[in-house]
Design goal:
Helix content: 55-70%
Shape: elongated
Radius of gyration: 34 Å
Structural class: mainly alpha
Length: 959
């Protein structure tokens, strides 16, 4: 008869009292009670990670706080985001939570809850878009649940897709969510971290890294005393500690064994029995000893469970063990009572701990083990659907390497079909590790793995994998070229690493002969390496055009055409607009249409640099519409980014920083978008006198911009940083920064995008006494802009001319500043117009105080309305101290029968064919507000919706 452990052993989370973990339990609870929080629980197998989670879950349950737990397994079948989905399935929806529409993306993954979720949205065509849609769905679902902790256990076994989802979720947690991840550090990939190299703990988020170590000897003594009461002598505690080395699982297994034997042997010789146990000490002894007390049928069933290694139903275990139904049931009950197996979800059974499973597996003789694996393969093949990953595992374990390669490829195909890139990547790595994989099979596996890695969120980690593939001498030159191209583009797109260009250029030589279409893709990327200058980019573009000219490949031709339009707009080419108008917009070829969308977005984005703000708005809106048609979420993201920049330029500053942050939540690794955010928020900070923050943001933008394909962000960052230095009276620093950016403009011919930089550089030169250099720069810029369609640079050039004449010819300088103000007003940038008005007033201070007062008053009013407090204060001081004028209170400007800046945007979108709902989404307005704007636009234009494109003077095809 088996004696139970003493009552003192009963704990909330299992058969043993929790000892030695009170501090860690307090850390865990404190973090998840202050959401949002990310808690990482690290520790070796058997150290008590799951027990800590159970104890916390029990306590949180009393606080109406849901705890949803999913686990990663080494042999999980292909299913996207399986551990997270397993956890979400357990959500309690009895409170009828209300979920936003984006939660509908989870309906296909949670069929049992689908009737409680919104309808699934249309699925994007591209992998990043699908990933973002699932992330939005998970985030919305967890937000709707209220106070919740999501636990994912054994993350060292997680597939890449699950890890990426958790990485993105951890970066932007719902406000009432705690995310708890457990893992073994020793089982992570070499040099890897639990969420990958891309993870940084987000600011404003609570968090802990809890590292569980072995128990100390007094804690093992406490564990024994709780279990055995007065029988737990000091000597027994010391023996338990020596055998377990402080590992709670091993000590608990020994205590279970002692309790089982106490019915016949008592506790009198407990120490001796522990000391006399066969070597090696620890868990192996306790597990083997316990099996020795069980029936042959129970031992057979334990071996079957050890071979399967995943939760399995009673019928499968019984069949694999070769037992009858009654024998199997009896054997299973024995193993459950012996605490070797436990019941997992949905009536499946698994070892209580992975260490115990490993011990039993290693005790099975080799021939018997191989036969069990062979029988497992036969049994698993009979299932519908057949679990391909498990079949591949058992095939290899049975010694059939050739068969395993075939099974593994089937499993890869299945994983890719259900878009589970993580499982596919794991299997592909295993395949490539096998020397017998040769020829076409090896090439196919390498390319598939490279494709998965290139689209990964954590590209820095996967770049190591791609470099490793490049070192495989068994791959053909063209396959290495494909992999190298993926590596180079990933380095450029994800990390803004200029070294990516070197990889892309090498890929051209490897691909040009046998895979010319991929070589063209590389040439197109090199044609955008603007830092090398126009001759370099033109040479690569012409080379790509020559290769596609007679190819008959319309999609490839469209890609090259989009690149040519990008370079044309960068140079302010006046012939651009005719080419944009002729882009194919009604084609049925999805890839051609995608390239049209790319061209529209690239042109829109750079047109805004040039000062074609209304054109840029219309083209960005159209690009977003095309992106929605082809399912390109990244293009939709870029379109929204361009429109947010236009919001900043048009003076819609309220809530701008929050809108930028919300945009970046979808693509947190987008370097260019982060640079743009830093530039725009830096401008806001500088206008408010927050110069330290502005300097930090502009430097952040400059660092990011230096690695981008095009030089526009780098030059804008330099302009902003120079202005900050000038505002602080640091003219030499301003000149040093501006000189480097001017050298970039000179080398690349980027004068059409140098608005802001020209005036900052000239002002810095003048402040340092470099009039000749300032005049030389002005002349060079004027020549560089001759014949170019660049309204913003032209306006800035007028400011430059005013700066040069301010000291000697103030009236002439004032006229240049007034001209600049008029140009900025035409473009639609009130902040720049106000700065030009202020400069005009400064020029007229001595010669025409009345006119100066008018200019300062106008500038101050605009600055005040925008919230540019430092700029408004500066103008106010001049009015008060130098001109003796008392400022009127701020008032909102009226536009009469003219369109306001916001109405211009609405009109542009109407001209492009946007619906009210589309306008609301693009401009982040409510439908009611859009209705009011549309009504005003149509009334002021004297037209109806059908004729607005022909009536609106700022339509996309107008000058």
């Amino acid at each position: 008869m088996t004696r139970e452990l003493g009552d003192a052993a009963e704990g909330q989370g299992g058969r043993f009292r929790l000892v030695g973990r009170r501090r860690e339990l307090g850390q865990l609870l404190a973090a998840v009670r202050r959401p949002p929080a990310v808690v990482l629980v690290e520790g070796e197998a058997g150290v008590g990670k799951s027990r800590l989670i159970r104890e916390a879950s029990i306590e949180l349950a009393t606080e109406r706080h849901q705890v949803l737990t999913g686990s990663c397994h080494p042999l999980r079948e292909p299913f996207p985001y399986g551990p997270v989905v397993d956890a979400l399935r357990k959500a309690d929806l009895t409170g009828s939570p209300v979920f936003p529409p984006t939660a509908g993306a989870l309906a296909p993954l949670l069929p049992d809850l689908a009737d409680r979720l919104p309808a699934p949205p249309e699925e994007p065509a591209d992998a990043p878009g699908r990933r973002f849609r699932v992330l939005q769905g998970v985030r919305s679902f967890l937000t709707g649940l209220g106070p919740t902790t999501l636990v994912v256990e054994d993350l060292h076994w997680a597939d890449e897709a699950t890890r990426e989802l958790l990485l993105l979720l951890a970066r932007d947690l719902p406000p009432r969510l705690g995310l708890v991840l457990t893992y073994r550090a020793e089982d992570l990939p070499p040099g890897g971290t639990v969420l990958g190299a891309a993870y940084r703990h987000p600011p404003g988020t609570a968090g802990e890294v809890i590292r569980l170590g072995p128990l100390k000897e007094p804690e093992v003594q406490e564990l024994a005393s709780a279990a055995l009461g007065p029988y737990a002598t000091t000597a027994l505690g010391a023996a338990l500690y020596r055998r377990s080395e402080g590992l709670p699982l091993v000590a608990e297994e020994d205590l279970i064994t002692l309790a089982e034997h106490s019915g016949t042997l008592g506790y009198g010789e407990a120490v001796e029995r522990l000391q006399d146990a066969d070597a090696p000490r620890g868990l192996r002894d306790t597990v083997v000893e316990r099996l020795g007390t069980l029936s042959p049928q129970a031992n057979a069933l334990a071996e079957a469970a050890a071979v399967l290694a995943t939760p399995a139903p009673e019928e499968s275990l019984t069949a694999l063990a070769g037992l009858g139904e009654e024998q199997g049931a009896g054997a299973l009950i024995e193993l459950l009572r012996a605490s070797l197996l436990r019941e997992a979800d949905q009536g499946a059974y698994v070892f209580r701990h992975v260490l115990a499973q490993q011990v039993v597996y290693r005790t099975i003789p080799g021939p018997a083990r191989r036969r069990l694996h062979q029988r497992a393969v036969e049994a698993l093949r009979s299932r519908t659907p057949a679990p391909s990953v498990q079949i591949a595992h058992h095939t290899l374990a049975a010694g059939d390497r050739a068969g395993w390669l075939l099974c593994a490829q089937d499993a890869v195909d299945e994983a890719i079909a259900v878009r589970d890139g993580g499982t596919a990547a794991m299997l592909l790595r295993q395949m490539l590790d096998r020397p017998e994989l040769e020829g076409e099979g090896r090439s196919r596996a390498a390319l598939a793995l490279a494709g998965i890695a290139a689209s990964s969120v954590d590209f820095r980690t996967d770049a190591r994998l791609l470099r490793g593939l490049l070192g495989d001498p068994r791959l053909s030159e063209e396959v290495r070229g494909e992999i190298r191209l993926g590596l180079g583009l990933g380095m450029l797109n994800e990390n803004a690493d200029p070294a990516g260009f070197d990889e892309v250029e090498r890929a051209v030589g490897e691909l040009e002969t046998r895979r010319p279409e991929r070589a063209v893709r590389a040439m197109v990327a090199l044609a955008l390496k603007e830092s090398e200058g126009p001759a370099y980019t033109r040479a690569w573009l012409e080379r790509a055009e020559a290769m596609v000219r007679d190819s008959g490949n319309e999609a490839l031709t469209a890609a090259v055409r989009a690149t040519r339009l990008t370079l044309m707009v960068c140079q302010g080419d006046g012939l651009l607009w005719e080419s944009v108008a002729s882009l194919p917009r009604r084609t049925e070829d999805r890839e051609v249409l995608r390239q049209t969308g790319r061209a529209l977005q690239n042109v829109a984005d750079t047109a805004v640099y040039l000062g074609h703000d209304r054109r840029g708005a219309a083209l960005a809106a159209e690009a977003g519409q095309v992106a929605a048609r082809v399912g390109s979420s990244i293009s939709q993201f870029l379109s929204r980014g361009t429109l947010l920049r236009l919001d900043a330029f048009a003076g819609r500053w309220e809530g701008l920083e929050e809108r930028l942050d919300a945009l970046l939540d979808g693509y947190p690794t987008a370097v260019a978008a982060h640079a743009e955010r830093a530039l725009l928020v830096g401008t806001l900070a500088a206008s408010r006198g927050q110069y330290a923050r502005a300097e930090e943001l502009y430097e952040e933008a400059a660092k990011a911009g230096a690695g981008l394909l095009l030089v526009g962000p780098e030059m804008r960052a330099a302009a902003g940083l120079s202005n900050v230095h000038l505002a602080r009276g640091e003219a030499p620093r301003a000149r040093a920064v501006a000189e480097r950016a001017v050298a970039t403009a000179r080398r690349t011919g980027a004068w059409p995008r140098a608005a802001g930089l020209l005036s900052a550089a000239v002002e810095a030169e003048l402040a340092c006494g470099g009039r000749e250099d300032a005049e030389r720069l002005a002349g060079e810029a004027a020549r560089g802009l001759a014949g170019r369609d660049a309204p913003a640079a032209a306006a800035d050039l007028e400011t430059v001319r005013g700066l040069l004449r301010r000291e000697t010819e103030p009236d002439a300088a004032a006229r240049h500043f007034a001209d600049a103000a008029g140009r900025w007003e035409e473009i639609g940038r009130p902040y720049e117009r106000a700065r030009a008005c202020e400069r005009r007033g400064d020029a007229l201070l001595a010669t025409d105080p009345g006119a100066a007062a008018g200019s300062f008053t106008e500038a101050a009013a605009v600055f005040t309305e925008l919230g540019a407090t430092a700029d408004a204060g500066r103008c106010g001081r001049v009015l008060r101290d130098d001109l003796g004028v008392a400022r009127r209170g701020p008032g909102r400007r009226g536009y009469g029968g003219s369109l306001s800046p916001r109405e211009h945007e609405v009109a542009g979108l109407l001209a492009a064919g946007a619906t009210n709902q589309g306008i609301a989404e693009v401009l982040f307005l409510s439908p009611r507000t859009v209705e009011n704007h549309v009504a005003k636009v149509l009334r002021k234009l004297g037209t109806d919706r059908k004729r607005v494109a022909a009536t609106y003077p700022g339509r996309a095809d107008a000058g």
